[in-house]
Design goal:
By secondary structure, the chain is an alpha+beta fold. Helix content is 23%, strand content 31%. It contains 13 helices and 37 strands. Strands 11, 12, 16, 17, 18, 19, 22, 23, 24 and 25 form a 10-stranded mixed β-sheet that branches. Strands 26, 29, 30, 31, 32, 33, 34, 35, 36 and 37 form a 10-stranded mixed β-sheet that branches. β27 and β28 form a beta hairpin. The radius of gyration is 28 Å and the shape is globular.
């Protein structure tokens, strides 16, 4: 079999847009023999001739559920199409420029469509396999002049099958029945017939087609595994265990020589999570030399190939694909533990990004919003600006799936329908939607979700005492673990939701809503403290368990707790350690907000020690110990945000990073540095404490400002070797002194390269 399947040239996605295209007159097609069976694969071919090649040839492509596109034997798109849907009824489409792949004379478009045919926690099936193709430049549209057929080499594997949360099936390919020769220019297209027209492109059950708002996948091409194998050799019935450099989304490849009819099994070390199964692959050999890449992605640290006895193994490789963003951020300090934590959090973040943000890439692949709030916050410190499009997509989906009674729920898209009130309040609040705006300056998206946020907040009511009416939603869940004061947690997240909504209202000029929401916040804060603060701790009236560290922390983070309560809250956080990695992020953040950064670092070490000291895994667990959940879970990476935002002290105080606050809280650390590329350009901050001197070096992007804060304990401050403070302000042309703020001298500087030295 010719290896054209493996040549790839990445096509960059077009600018972010949720606008539709004009699909009037365009048809949706399928193979005549298609019965819309789950896990079915369909080949589509279009032959045409060109007398000239256009400079640009934009093409709109949609399918249910995934497609691979070749033009003239070159692979143009590796796993195109996003899982359904942008709303409960609609479907995404891709836009690709195919001009670089066209040639004079005879041309051939070949498309392989994989129809999942079942719902999951990240996909809503339309119930109809098919393809839409629209190219107005070439006047090529999906219709009955296309050729198609079911690809009968793709089958169900033997038992066992993936768990019900996954819309993907295992992938089995029987090479005795089919090859990939059908994509070759000179193939005779045996078995193909005219495609069947199902209806208009935007008719039911696909409905409106919405442009893909995120890039096509980054693609590594085929790569060698870490452990080197001397090929070729003949298998004795071995399982070949190949090591990946980190937990990654991969598709496995091999080249072999074999007799026909032998079954090769491929799975990763993440195939089984407790009693829950992820995806795997099978391949049935043909006779002779052959190569194959299983197209259903899987993830893990190891790929395990079972080769039956007598199979001669010529080569094994893998392809890594994933969300198209760059690792532009970094963090380093003089303590290797925190450096490893930051790096593992980054790996955890990246492997949980694809069609949506995910909780885990193996068991569920689901866009739980409690996870997404943590993930999105990390991305702004670790990844290039393209990552923000995945957050924006999630925001629009969450509100587009809102029910008529005002409730929102996740994960969406998918078949899940239960509201988790705490996670939903977190999603629309200060750390969710508003944090997206602060990092991007995307006012348009705030406008799109605003009414949905307002509608959801109206679902919540306060009682005669001024705090939330007890409301359980569909799943009365606060966190994993024990001693969970759910009502305390919900009340704090509600206040954060009001805070985010007030800011949105102010941004959009709804002054009446600003006034009304501020009044509601003032009354709520007073009632919260009157009702929940008892005997030196926060506790809801009906909660009878041990003091919940989560509720104490969220009261601080939300701004409900005043400074006078901080010492007593600190004592609770020193003794109570019930939060899962999901809400531990807020516990750590509370410690830094209260000014107890030294204990914050200590607690971070204590809580994360098993995960960070695990030499076998590059990602963070779902829960604190191995074996009690997935070994890669998105919500566990909040420590990354704490290290960059609080230890290095870097945070946007004006939207789109136009003004940056720099207020390091290093505790006993003597060195820390962080950097990233924001929507406003690259920043870097480096702090060094040694020999009685305190140095901050920062590089700011063009047309930006920074508020640099230096403890008042330092009596002499120089900026770029010029004295700017020596007991009083020394007026200068480089900085503006803003006074003392909570024990810090504050200086405003503009874009450039700056060195502060305090002593």
């Amino acid at each position: 079999m010719k290896s054209v399947i493996f040549s790839f040239l990445l096509i960059l996605a077009l600018p972010l847009s949720m606008n539709g295209n004009d699909f009037k007159g365009i048809k949706r097609i399928t193979a005549n023999e298609s019965q819309n069976e789950s896990n079915s694969w369909i080949n589509f071919v279009k032959l045409f001739e060109l007398s000239e090649i256009p400079e640009k040839s934009l093409t709109q492509i949609a399918c249910d559920s995934k497609y691979w596109l070749w033009i003239n034997e070159k692979l143009v798109v590796f796993e195109g199409q996003l899982k359904r849907g942008p709303t409960p009824n609609d479907t995404y489409y891709d836009e690709v420029d195919i001009a670089p792949y066209l040639k004079l004379g005879k041309n051939k478009i070949a498309i392989l469509v994989w129809y999942f045919g079942k719902d999951g926690f990240s996909h809503k099936s339309s119930g109809q396999a098919g393809l839409v193709f629209k190219n107005d430049v070439l006047h090529i549209h999906s219709d009955n002049t296309w050729l198609s057929r079911l690809n009968k080499a793709f089958e169900y594997t033997s038992r066992d099958y993936p768990n019900y949360r996954l819309s993907e099936s295992n992938v089995r390919f029987d090479a005795r029945k089919e090859s990939f020769d059908w994509i070759l220019l000179e193939d005779n297209l045996r078995g193909f017939g005219r495609a069947k027209v199902l209806g208009d492109a935007e008719s039911s059950p696909w409905n409106k087609l919405v442009k893909r708002p995120i890039p096509l996948w980054k693609n590594s091409g085929l790569k060698e595994y870490k452990n080197k194998i001397n090929f070729p050799f003949v298998s004795e019935g071995d399982t070949l265990i190949l090591t990946l450099p980190y937990n990654a989304q991969i598709t496995p490849y091999f080249q072999i020589r074999s007799d026909a009819g032998k079954v090769i099994d491929i799975r990763t070390d993440n195939y089984r999570i407790g009693n829950t199964l992820s995806v795997r692959a099978e391949y049935v050999t043909s006779s002779g030399l052959q190569e194959y890449e299983s197209l259903g992605w899987m993830n893990g640290h190891q790929v395990r190939y079972y080769f039956p006895e007598g199979v001669e193994i010529m080569d094994v490789k893998y392809r890594e694909t994933g969300y198209d963003t760059e690792f532009t951020g970094s963090f380093t300090c003089n303590d290797a533990f925190f450096n490893r934590l930051w790096e593992k959090a980054l790996r955890t973040l990246y492997v949980t990004m694809r069609d949506t943000y995910m909780d885990c890439p193996d068991r569920e692949r689901a866009q739980w919003w409690g996870d997404l709030v943590n993930e999105s916050g990390e991305a702004f410190y670790a990844l290039s600006p393209s990552a923000a499009s995945l957050t924006q997509k999630g925001m629009l989906e969450l509100i587009n799936w809102q029910r008529s009674d005002g409730t929102i729920y996740s994960p969406v898209p998918g078949m899940y329908t239960s509201e988790l009130p705490g996670q939903m309040l977190a999603s629309i609040g200060y750390y969710g939607f508003w944090n997206y705006y602060m990092n991007t300056g995307d006012k348009e998206t705030v406008e799109k979700v605003y009414n949905g946020v307002k509608k959801y907040l109206s679902v919540w009511e306060t009682d005669e005492k001024g705090i939330l009416v007890h409301r359980e939603g569909d799943w009365y869940w606060g966190d994993w673990g024990t001693n969970i004061d759910k009502q305390g947690i919900f009340n704090a997240f509600y206040y954060l939701a009001l805070k985010g909504f007030k800011n949105m209202s102010e941004l959009l000029g709804y002054n009446g809503e600003v006034k009304k929401t501020q009044e509601k916040m003032d009354a709520f804060k007073k009632a919260f403290n009157a009702q929940l603060w008892k005997n030196g701790e926060y506790r809801s009236e009906t909660y009878t368990g041990e003091t919940d560290d989560r509720t104490q922390a969220l009261a601080v983070v939300a701004g409900l707790a005043d400074e006078a309560k901080f010492p007593e809250i600190l004592q609770k956080l020193k003794t109570q350690k019930f939060a899962s990695p999901y809400l531990e992020k807020y516990v750590l953040e509370a410690l830094f907000i209260m000014g107890y950064e030294e204990y914050g670092l200590q607690r971070m070490k204590e809580r994360y020690s098993e995960m960070i000291n695990d030499p076998a895994r590059t990602t963070l667990y779902e829960l604190w110990n191995i074996g009690s959940g997935s070994v890669n879970h998105a919500w566990s990476g909040g420590g990354l945000t704490i290290l960059s935002q609080y230890v290095c002290g870097v945070y946007p105080v004006e939207a789109a990073w136009k003004t940056i606050r720099i207020r390091p809280q290093m505790g006993s650390l003597t060195y820390a540095a962080t950097e990233n590329t924001t929507v406003n350009g690259k920043f870097s901050v480096e702090i060094n404490k040694s020999n009685g001197k305190y140095r901050i070096h920062t590089l700011l992007p063009q047309e930006s400002n920074a508020i640099v804060m230096i403890p008042v304990s330092y009596k002499k401050i120089n900026l770029n070797n010029h004295l700017i403070w020596n007991g009083k302000e020394k007026r200068n042309q480089w900085s503006e002194y803003l006074g003392i703020d909570n024990g810090y001298h504050t200086f405003k500087i503009k874009s450039g390269n700056w060195n502060f030295v305090a002593e």
